[in-house]
Write a sequence for this structure.
C-alpha cells in the first residue's frame, strides 16, 4: 500500500532528524498564523454562524459549566429547546467544553478564545495530512505539498464559519491513517487510535460530514480487502478478523460519543429535520460548470465580507431568459472545493501514475463519486441516495466534494515524487505536458473573460473574475515550469519542493484568506441598550415572560440574543428546530398568549418606526386550569385549529390526566402558585388548590423532562400541542420539574466505560509490534 515503486523518497536532514516533526509542526503553525493573521492578531473576525450561533451558545454553555451544571436546556431561544443534546453546539467536544476557563468575571466569553480554538484546527489538518502521507512512504516535500493543499483547500478554508465541519476534516487524515494500519498492518493500537480520532471528529458536531467520513471508511476497507484477496495478500480465513478490525473503530467511536449520540437521536426524531423533502435536500447542489472552479476558484465571484465590491453570482440551474436569477450566497461556501493549481497539476500527473494501484484506484473512484453526488439535483446520484436512511435528511450535497480535495492533495504528493523519481521516460513527460495544456487553456479563457461568459456569469462578475484567471494562468506557468525542470533533473529537488509548497500556500491564501475576514466583532454585535436589557432580562422567577423581538419588517436584537443576556425569546437561530415548538391555536395571538409573550416588536406602517408594545393578553408563565379537552396525538392539531377554546379556562391534552377535574372556570377555584426555584435544568413550584386541576406552563414539552409531586414521580402531560402540564391534586403540594434524560445517563456511562477500555487497550498495545498484510 506504499507509493509506486518507481517513485523515490526524497529525504533530507529536515525530514529525517528526530526533531523534524517539531519543525514541520512549527511550519504549519506559521502558515496558519499568516493565513488568518488579520483574525488572530488584527481587527477582523470570523463571521456568519460563528457570530450568530457558536458565540452566543458557547458563551451560554461556558456560564453553565462554570456554575457546575451541564447546559441540557436553553430556555432563551424558541421558547426553550435542548442544548447539550444538539451535536452542532459541540458542548462535549473537549476544546469547546474547556472554553469556560476563558470566561470573564462579567460572564462574557472573549471571541478571540473561540477563534483561536477554531483556527488551530488548521494546524491539525495540515499535520494530520503530512503524517498520513509519510505513513505511505511519500517524500517529505510531497507530504508538505499535500498538507498545504488539504489544510487550506476550499472544503476547510470557507468553513471557518462552520467549525463543526472543519474539525471533522482536520481529523480525517489521522482517522484514515490509523484505520488503514489497523486493518492492513494488524495493529490493534492503530485500531484504537482510529476509533479515538473518529470519536473526536464525530463529537465535534457535524452529522453530515460524519456520515460522509464513515461512508469513505467503509468503502475504503471493502475496496482494499477485495484488492488484498485478489492479490492473495490475504486469505479468506483472515476475513473475519480483518472485518472485526474494520468495524472496531466505528464501535469505539460510537461508544466514545454515546454521551452525545443517544440524546441527539432523541432530538433528531422530534425535529423538523426528521422529515425533509427532496427539493430541500438538494439545496446546495453543484452545477457541472462549477467544475471549472478547480482551476479558477472564484469564477462566479466570491463572498468576502471585508470586500463589498466582490460579488457572488452563480446563475441558477433552473434559470431562464424570462426569469433569470442567481443561487443564494450560501452556495459559495457549500460548493467551494478549490485545492490549488499545484495540487491539480501534480495531482493529475500523480493519478496517471497510480490509478492502477489499489490506493490510487480507490481515490479516483471516490473522487468520481463525489463529483457526481455533489451535483445534487443537477445529476442522478443524489436522487438515488435520497432514499437511503440518514442521507435523505441532509442538505448541500456539494459538501461531499471534500473527497476530491483530499484525493488530489495525496495525488499531488505522489505526482511530485513521480516527477522526482529516477525511473522516467519520454512518454511520461508528454503526459505531464498534456495535463498542463487543459488547465492552461481554461486559465487563458478565464483571463480573457470568455470562460465566465460561456459559463453564464453576469457582466459584473466577468470583470471581477478575469483577474482570477490571470492569477491562475501565472500559477499554471510556474507549476508547469517547476515540474518540467524537475522531470529533466535540472532543478534541485529541495528547491523544487520549497517553491511548490510556497506556490500552493500563496495560491490558496489569495483564493480563500479574505473569506474569514469578517468586519463585525461578535462581542459588539450582542451589546444592547442597558434599558432594554433591564426591561427584558429574566430576574423575578414569579414573573417570567417572553419577548418577540422581530416581525416582518424589523429585528430589534440578534437572533440568539437570549442566551447572552438571559432574555426569554420567542425567536432564535438553530439549524435544528423542534417540530412542536409553538402551540397550534386557531390564531397567532392565542399562541403568543399561551407562550407568555408579554412584549412584541411592532412597526408603525405610517412612519416605519419600531417599538416594543406590551401585550396585556399574555398568560402567566404558570397557571392553573380546571377544564380539559382530551384529543389524541393524531387529532390534536385538527381540534385546536377548530378554535372555540378559551385557553384561560381550558387545556387541550393528549391523554387522561388521571384525576377528576371539576370542569369549572379558574375563577371559581381558590388557588395559588409560587415559584420556589427556576434554572435552566430545573424548576420548583408550590401549588395550593382547593380542587384538583392542571398546572400549565409556558414551557416547551420535551421527553427528557421529569416531574415529581411531593417527591413522588408524576407524568408531564403534553398540553396545547407543544407545552408542559401536570395534574395537581387538591391541597398544597410541591412539584419539581427536572431535566433528567435517561438516554444521557446511559450515554454518559457508555462513554466513560469506552474511555477506560481505550486507555487500557493503548497501554497494553503500546509495546507490541504489528504485522503487515
Amino acid at each position: 500500500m506504499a507509493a509506486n515503486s518507481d517513485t523515490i523518497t526524497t529525504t533530507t536532514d529536515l525530514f529525517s532528524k528526530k526533531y523534524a516533526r517539531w519543525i514541520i509542526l512549527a511550519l504549519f503553525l506559521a502558515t496558519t498564523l499568516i493565513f488568518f493573521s488579520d483574525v488572530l492578531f488584527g481587527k477582523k473576525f470570523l463571521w456568519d454562524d460563528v457570530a450568530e450561533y457558536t458565540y452566543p451558545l458557547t458563551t451560554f454553555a461556558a456560564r453553565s459549566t462554570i456554575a457546575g451544571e451541564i447546559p441540557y436546556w436553553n430556555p432563551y431561544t424558541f421558547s426553550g429547546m435542548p442544548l447539550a443534546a444538539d451535536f452542532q453546539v459541540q458542548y462535549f467536544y473537549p476544546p469547546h467544553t474547556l472554553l469556560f476557563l476563558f470566561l470573564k468575571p462579567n460572564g462574557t466569553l472573549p471571541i478571540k478564545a473561540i477563534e483561536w480554538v477554531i483556527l488551530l484546527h488548521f494546524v491539525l489538518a495540515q499535520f494530520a495530512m503530512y503524517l498520513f502521507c509519510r505513513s505511505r512512504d511519500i517524500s517529505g516535500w510531497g507530504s508538505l505539498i499535500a498538507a498545504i493543499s488539504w489544510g487550506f483547500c476550499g472544503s476547510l478554508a470557507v468553513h471557518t464559519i462552520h467549525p463543526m465541519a472543519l474539525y471533522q476534516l482536520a481529523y480525517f487524515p489521522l482517522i484514515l491513517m490509523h484505520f488503514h494500519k489497523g486493518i492492513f498492518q494488524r495493529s490493534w493500537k492503530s485500531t484504537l487510535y482510529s476509533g479515538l480520532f473518529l470519536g473526536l471528529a464525530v463529537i465535534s458536531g457535524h452529522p453530515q460530514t460524519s456520515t460522509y467520513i464513515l461512508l469513505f471508511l467503509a468503502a475504503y476497507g471493502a475496496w482494499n480487502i477485495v484488492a488484498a484477496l485478489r492479490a492473495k495478500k490475504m486469505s479468506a480465513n483472515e476475513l473475519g478478523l480483518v472485518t472485526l478490525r474494520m468495524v472496531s473503530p466505528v464501535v469505539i467511536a460510537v461508544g466514545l460519543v454515546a454521551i452525545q449520540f443517544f440524546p441527539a437521536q432523541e432530538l433528531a426524531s422530534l425535529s423538523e429535520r426528521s422529515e425533509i423533502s427532496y427539493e430541500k435536500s438538494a439545496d446546495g447542489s453543484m452545477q457541472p460548470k462549477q467544475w471549472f472552479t478547480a482551476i479558477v476558484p472564484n469564477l462566479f465571484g466570491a463572498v468576502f465580507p471585508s470586500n463589498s465590491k466582490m460579488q457572488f453570482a452563480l446563475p441558477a440551474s433552473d434559470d431562464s431568459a424570462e426569469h433569470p436569477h442567481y443561487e443564494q450566497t450560501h452556495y459559495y461556501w457549500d460548493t467551494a472545493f478549490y485545492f490549488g493549481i499545484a495540487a491539480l497539476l501534480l495531482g493529475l500527473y500523480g493519478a496517471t501514475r497510480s490509478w492502477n494501484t489499489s490506493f490510487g484506484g480507490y481515490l479516483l473512484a471516490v473522487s468520481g463519486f463525489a463529483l457526481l453526488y455533489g451535483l445534487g439535483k443537477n445529476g442522478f446520484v443524489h436522487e438515488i441516495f435520497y432514499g437511503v436512511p440518514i442521507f435523505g435528511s441532509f442538505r448541500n450535497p456539494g459538501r461531499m466534494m471534500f473527497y476530491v480535495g483530499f484525493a488530489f492533495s495525496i495525488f499531488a504528493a505522489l505526482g511530485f515524487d513521480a516527477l522526482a523519481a529516477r525511473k522516467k521516460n519520454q512518454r511520461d513527460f508528454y503526459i505531464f505536458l498534456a495535463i498542463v495544456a487543459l488547465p492552461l487553456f481554461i486559465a487563458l479563457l478565464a483571463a480573457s473573460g470568455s470562460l465566465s461568459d460561456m459559463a453564464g456569469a453576469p457582466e459584473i462578475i466577468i470583470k471581477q473574475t478575469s483577474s482570477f484567471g490571470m492569477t491562475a494562468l501565472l500559477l499554471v506557468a510556474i507549476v508547469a515550469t517547476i515540474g518540467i525542470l524537475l522531470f529533466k533533473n535540472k532543478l534541485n529537488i529541495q528547491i523544487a519542493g520549497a517553491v511548490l509548497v510556497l506556490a500552493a500556500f500563496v495560491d490558496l491564501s489569495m483564493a480563500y484568506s479574505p473569506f474569514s475576514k469578517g468586519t463585525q466583532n461578535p462581542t459588539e454585535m450582542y451589546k444592547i441598550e442597558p434599558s432594554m436589557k433591564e426591561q427584558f432580562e429574566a430576574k423575578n422567577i414569579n414573573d417570567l415572560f417572553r419577548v418577540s423581538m422581530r416581525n416582518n419588517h424589523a429585528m430589534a436584537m440578534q437572533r440568539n440574543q437570549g442566551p447572552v443576556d438571559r432574555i426569554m425569546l420567542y425567536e432564535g437561530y438553530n439549524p435544528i428546530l423542534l417540530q412542536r415548538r409553538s402551540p397550534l391555536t386557531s390564531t397567532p395571538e392565542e399562541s403568543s398568549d399561551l407562550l407568555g409573550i408579554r412584549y412584541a416588536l411592532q412597526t408603525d406602517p405610517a412612519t416605519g418606526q419600531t417599538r416594543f408594545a406590551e401585550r396585556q393578553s399574555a398568560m402567566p408563565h404558570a397557571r392553573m386550569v380546571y377544564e380539559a379537552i382530551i384529543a389524541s396525538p393524531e387529532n390534536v392539531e385538527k381540534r385546536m385549529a377548530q378554535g372555540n377554546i378559551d385557553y384561560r379556562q381550558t387545556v387541550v391534552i393528549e391523554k387522561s390526566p388521571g384525576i377528576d377535574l371539576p370542569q369549572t372556570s379558574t375563577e371559581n377555584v381558590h388557588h395559588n402558585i409560587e415559584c420556589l426555584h427556576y434554572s435552566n435544568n430545573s424548576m420548583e413550584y408550590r401549588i395550593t388548590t382547593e380542587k384538583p386541576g392542571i398546572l400549565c406552563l409556558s414551557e416547551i414539552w420535551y421527553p427528557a423532562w421529569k416531574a415529581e409531586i411531593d417527591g413522588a414521580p408524576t407524568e408531564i402531560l403534553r398540553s396545547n400541542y407543544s407545552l408542559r402540564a401536570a395534574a395537581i391534586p387538591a391541597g398544597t403540594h410541591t412539584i419539581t420539574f427536572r431535566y433528567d434524560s435517561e438516554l444521557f445517563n446511559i450515554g454518559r456511562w457508555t462513554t466513560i466505560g469506552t474511555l477506560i477500555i481505550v486507555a487500557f487497550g493503548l497501554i497494553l498495545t503500546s509495546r507490541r509490534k504489528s504485522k503487515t498484510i
Observations:
- Residues 239-269 form the longest helix (31 residues).
